[in-house]
Fold each of these.
Amino acid sequence: MTPSNPNNAVNPLPPVVVALFLILLAIELYFQAGSNGLAGGPSAVGWRLTALQRYGFSGEILRWMWDTGQWPAEHLIRFVSYPFIHLSFTQTIFAGVMMLAMGKMVAEVFGPVAFLAVYFVSAIVGALVFTVLTDGALPLIGSFPSVYGLIGAFTWLLWRKMSLVGENQFRAFTLIGFLMGIQLIFALFFGVSKDWVADLAGFATGFLLSFLLVPGGWAKLLAKLRQEK
């Protein structure tokens, strides 16, 4: 007989993670429909380029806003819109799959609000560090700084778990070391890309945010600060 409450072989993904992935996918399918002549007419071929110009993050624009003291919403939105614009379908799927894998674990432990906080704060900090440490001549697009933020939060979970069981905590950083190594190899063979600066900043942001976003983390921090006074 079939059990009345069978256990799922695979735990379902948190809805917030699925929703974010579907948004990424829908935007990419929109670009694909335009570039393949399925919608929008001849002008639709340039939809991706137009989106890159309007919603990609620009270090030069940020410097202009800083110098002039003007902060128009149409440019501020770039801090959180650039993760939704990718160069190709392959890049979108690759980033989306990584987001699903990392996002599932982060959202299940920290909750949906904390998951979104890691995703978008990592994007913002990644863009800021990218501007400071590079010339900002090329736009920053793609969700990898955000995904690396989720990797940072996942690394924190491993780091914390290993501390509790007495294992070597440096093993928690194996994944980020492996990914940075791959980027270095690609840079050596195909030219240096400065996007890794934003990716690494996103990772650090996700890792550090986890101290506050873990359930009870903010209360524990306040209690510790009071004890030090």
Amino acid sequence: MTSRGTKYWNSGAIPLIAPEMLGEIIATACDLAIVISPEGRILSVVVNKDHHAHGRIDHWEGRDIRDVLTPDSRPKLEARLELFAQDRDISGAVELNHADGAGWSFPVRYSFHAIGPDGGTLLMLGRDLRPIAEMQMQLIEAQMALERDYETQREYDTRYRVLTEATRDAFVFIGTKSGRVVDANPVACDLLDVERAELIGNAFAQEFE
């Protein structure tokens, strides 16, 4: 880096960047970048070349961004455009859901930045939320599977308890390696003259002379 560049960084300013490099830097820094007019007209779309999930969306250019948003996301955009029109703070991320009429949609978290010589246009830097949404869905599915397994196990435990308590025979379950009592039914506890809570976990051999 030249001494001039070092001075820029140390002073808190951003070094001058060649226009042909700026698009590549923006595309690398986010998954999706959109430049819109104050009215919401899409002026430019840049997609991260390493992020293939969006496909080709350059046909968005020239369209109203509202046309590629789901109905629930349009009020969020309108609120941000209103703040921009009033020269108020537009910082802070906003989650918008895109849809293009082809039966697909995807959520993106955008930050908004005023750009241009007079700050009259908006740069939206987006991060694709689909990986997070997919992970959340996997967690939900795993939780539901655990709950189903728990319900099944509880049903088995109930049946097992009913069977062992209803039989007239004495049952004691012993760990094959430890030799300690894992469980015992009431008939076995009465036969050994010991409470079940005191019997479980003890070495079964000590119950005999």
Amino acid sequence: MQPARIMEILDVVEKAAIASAEWNGKGDKVAVDQAATTAMREALNAIDFAGRIVIGEGERDEAPMLYIGEEVGRGGEEIDIAVDPLEGTNLCAFNKPNALTTIAIAPRGALLFAPDTYLQKIAAGPAAAGAVHIDKTPAENVAAVAEALGKPVGEVSVCILDRDRHKDLVQAVRDAGARVRLIGDGDVFGAIATAVPGTGIDLYMGAGGAPEGVLAAVGLKAIGGVFMGRLRFDLDRDGEEKRCRAEQTADVDLDGVLTMDMLVRTDDAAFLACGVTDGEMVSGVSKAHGCVTTESIIMNAADQTVRFIKTCRRGENGSVRFD
């Protein structure tokens, strides 16, 4: 991706974050999601490119905007776009850490047209590449990460979504001697955090959204790490219908292991996220002295760089501070 294109997408995630932050802590999950989605769509439609949503808010008949297959932009370079307008709707609605607005971009055809269903996932940092595997038991994966990181099993921290479907997984990890960090939402962050020192997360496992899996895979491809998945239509009450749709759009084995290179079929991809609430990777939106400040992260697989961006929007009379 050209730097100018990435900066245009940066503006998109920032605007969505600012719109979301207006609803921070107000307890209205519908309103905050609507604000993020509307702001993101309007900003995407202002760009001179031919964008196609391959990961979005749902199928066309389920989502009014940013649905899978929607075309955005004013025409030009053909780009595939994966979006989660607000990663962690509950996190923002109830003022909890790590709410993010997220986008991944790549040339047309490079991102998996993932069905809006569940994906069994495993993610770890670069040291564990080749050591962990989605078909290994939780105990085997915990042991592999401990060996790769050179730490005792008892110090390995495993991030898992706090869902009833994960009760057995949580118990298996604890039985293996590792620590569990349960999160209510935000498994894009949970997966990417395995490759970010200082987050306290060494391994991510569990079933979450397939769309979020593609977003996480782009980020991990840029910063180093491992990601594997397997579609779980059996966990979805509309799984049979979604499988039929996926058979027409996703050119992969719907029952097989999906590697990072199958989810993201290029190195010319970038993942961008902007903080809505404060978190381990970036701070949330803040207002002071008439200025709105955002912090974002850009993970670019093309040059294997990670950039942290602080943006101050001054308004008419705002002043910028340097601390």
Amino acid sequence: MKITAALVKELRERTGAGMMECKKALVGHSGDIEAAIEAMRKSGQAKAAKKAGRIAAEGLIVIQQNNSQATMVEVNCETDFVSKGDDFKNFCKTVGSTLLHKNPKNLEVLMAMPLEGFKKTIEEARKELIAKLGENINVRRFAMVDVVSDNCLGVYLHGTRIGVLVSMQGGNTQLAKDVAMHIAASRPLCVSKDFVPAETIAKEKEIFTAQAVESGKPAPIIEKMVEGRLNKFLNEITLLGQPFVKDPDQTVEKLLKTSNASVTHFERFEVGDGIEKKTDNFADEVKQLQEAN
């Protein structure tokens, strides 16, 4: 695989390592960026394994609710200018209303539904908007949370770019909203350790073991080091293990227990999360790589 300047740049952004270290790691792993990151973390070269692609596209998050459910949809466009225009905002709002009232099973079904108040489908309206605005428009994803008798629903929209829905048993609406605000700020991947994929735990354990071995300490000490680092990692990525944003002296788990509440499910959308934004100017990186060859 050709090691492009764009690939080197992405690895630099995700690890904080130098350009030549990144290029060397990519060459050594045939351009596999994930394998390169894992190897760099094991050797201690990577300063931080950041997630790539956050806020890499423009658009809006729209949340709507009624007495029985809440819905959330992300609609993307190419520029911040278009996302602030009335045409785009009205389209997003109407898609959200259609979603709330029609309960589609998946995105394909949603796109084939008539846009609320119109005869044309959402897909047809999307294509018309593309022609009018001159940008690509995409209804990317949606989530729905039902309100049942023993549940509280937490809803939080941070501006127009981050949205959270939380389903909670016990507690009250204010607590559910506070937890939703926490999720918006702290980005947990799942509710608890029980929901972390086994392969994720195994990979992190392997990395932590490789790092601990470098210390030269005895095996029993290394085992405890790995266990401690793994527990810290799991607390950082799970809702229950994180310090509550409004009161960092207690975890979210402790907060919920004091109210005899539990989070059964949550959804967090951030505009452009995971979408790689196109970058056209890599002149400096290309020049440096050419000079290094």
